[in-house]
Write a structure and sequence with these properties.
Elements: H1 10-20, E1 23-28, H2 35-43, E2 48-52, H3 56-74, H4 85-104, E3 111-115, H5 123-129, E4 134-139, H6 142-157, H7 159-164, H8 168-193, E5 198-202, H9 203-208, H10 210-220, H11 227-236, H12 239-242, H13 271-280, H14 302-310
Parallel strand pairs: 1-3, 1-4, 2-3, 4-5
Helix pairs in contact: 1-4, 2-11, 3-4, 6-8, 8-13, 10-11
C-alpha cells in the first residue's frame, strides 16, 4: 500500500518559526498538585494560549529519538545520512510547533504554554530543545496530593486501581516515592541550575493569595498583569468556572475537580496513614523540606480527630495540638 504524504507548505513552516519565537513555557508538577488549575488560569489571559497534555517531553521526544536511532542504523548513505542530536532538537521543535499552530490558530498571542505534569522529569531536555522556554512548577502538600489522587484514580480506573492498590497506605507509599518526591526533586534541581527560567509556587499559597501569585506568574512570563487581565485569569481558573457552578468545598467525587480545598487530608487520614506518610518522607533531605510541612509522629484517636475537625471552621489552618509543622527553605 502506497502512503501519500502532503508536503508542508512554506507558509506553515514560517508560521511555526514565528510561534516558536514567542514566549514558550511549560507547567510541571506532581499529578493532582494544581497543574490544570494553572493551565486554565493562564489560558484565560488574552495574550496567552495554554493547553495540555501534549506529553512532548515524556512521550514525543523519546519516540522521535528512537526513530532517529533506528533510521541511523538502517540507512546506507553513510555518515552524511546520519541524523544528529541537533537534528533531533529541530524535529522536536517542528513537531511541537505544529501542535502550537493548531492550538493558536489565527490568534495573535504573545505566549504559548503547555501543561504535562510528567514534564518535571525531562525539563533539561525540553530546555535544550527550547532555549528561551520558561518553566512553572507548582507543588502541593503531599498529604493532599495523596487524598486527591486516591479519589481521582478510584473514579477513573475503578477495579484495576483497586487491584493495584488494595488500601490507602499502599497508595501513599507509591505516590510519595514514585511521583511526589521524584517530580519535585527533579524540578527543583533544574530550578537550581536555571533560576532565571524557573518559577515555583505552592498550591496552598495560590489559594491564600490568588491575585498576588497570579500577577507574579504573569510578570515571570513578561505578560500584562493589569487588574483586568488578572481578573480574567482568576475567573477562567476559578473553581466555580471549572465545575460549572460549584463552590469550593462542595464535593463531587465524580468530577476531576472534586473539592478544591486545602487540607482535606485531615478529613481522611487516620493514625496509620499518618505513620505511613511519615515513613515515606522520613529520609527526605533537609533541603527539600520546603515542599510540605514535616509532620511529627502523632497519636490521635479517631474520636479526638472528629472533635478537632468539628471545632476548626477554617480547614486551611494547621491544628497546633495535632500537627507541628516546620518549613525549611532552599
Amino acid at each position: 500500500m502506497t502512503t501519500t504524504i502532503t508536503p508542508t507548505k512554506p507558509s506553515t513552516l514560517q508560521h511555526i518559526d514565528q510561534l516558536l519565537n514567542k514566549q514558550i513555557f511549560f507547567i510541571v508538577g506532581c499529578q493532582k498538585s494544581g497543574t490544570t488549575w494553572i493551565q486554565r488560569m493562564l489560558d484565560g489571559h488574552p495574550d496567552i494560549r495554554c493547553h495540555g497534555e501534549g506529553y512532548f517531553g515524556p512521550v514525543l521526544l523519546p519516540l522521535l529519538q528512537q526513530a532517529i536511532q533506528n533510521y541511523n542504523q538502517r540507512q546506507k548513505a553513510g555518515p552524511e545520512g546520519l541524523f544528529t542530536d541537533s537534528d533531533l532538537k529541530t524535529l522536536v521543535r517542528t513537531a511541537v510547533g505544529l501542535s502550537f499552530a493548531r492550538w493558536v490558530g489565527d490568534s495573535n498571542v504573545l505566549a504559548i504554554g503547555e501543561k504535562t505534569p510528567e514534564n518535571a522529569r525531562c525539563m533539561t531536555a525540553l530546555a535544550e530543545c527550547f532555549p528561551n522556554a520558561k518553566f512553572i512548577h507548582i507543588t502541593r502538600d503531599g498529604r493532599d496530593v495523596c487524598i486527591s489522587g486516591w479519589f481521582h484514580n478510584q473514579r477513573k480506573a475503578g477495579p484495576k486501581f483497586a487491584k493495584q492498590f488494595p488500601d490507602f497506605n499502599t497508595y501513599i507509599k507509591y505516590t510519595i516515592k514514585h511521583h511526589w518526591l521524584t517530580h519535585i526533586q527533579q524540578a527543583q534541581h533544574f530550578g537550581q541550575q536555571h533560576p532565571e527560567r524557573y518559577h515555583e509556587l505552592r498550591y496552598e499559597d495560590l489559594h491564600a493569595d490568588p491575585v498576588g501569585h497570579t500577577q507574579d506568574l504573569l510578570r515571570f512570563l513578561s505578560m500584562d498583569d493589569s487588574e483586568s487581565t488578572t481578573d480574567a485569569c482568576l475567573t477562567a481558573g476559578s473553581f466555580k468556572t471549572l465545575t460549572q457552578g460549584r463552590s469550593q468545598g462542595d464535593e463531587d467525587k465524580s468530577s476531576f475537580f472534586r473539592k478544591g480545598v486545602v487540607g482535606d487530608w485531615r478529613n481522611h487520614f487516620d493514625e496509620s496513614n499518618i505513620d505511613t506518610y511519615n515513613q515515606a518522607i522520613g529520609n527526605l533531605p533537609e533541603q527539600h523540606r520546603v515542599l510540605t510541612p514535616v509532620i511529627k509522629k502523632i497519636k490521635v484517636a479517631p474520636a479526638e480527630r472528629k472533635k478537632n475537625d468539628a471545632n476548626t471552621p477554617d480547614n486551611t489552618k494547621e491544628k497546633p495540638d495535632t500537627v507541628k509543622a516546620q518549613t525549611q527553605h532552599l
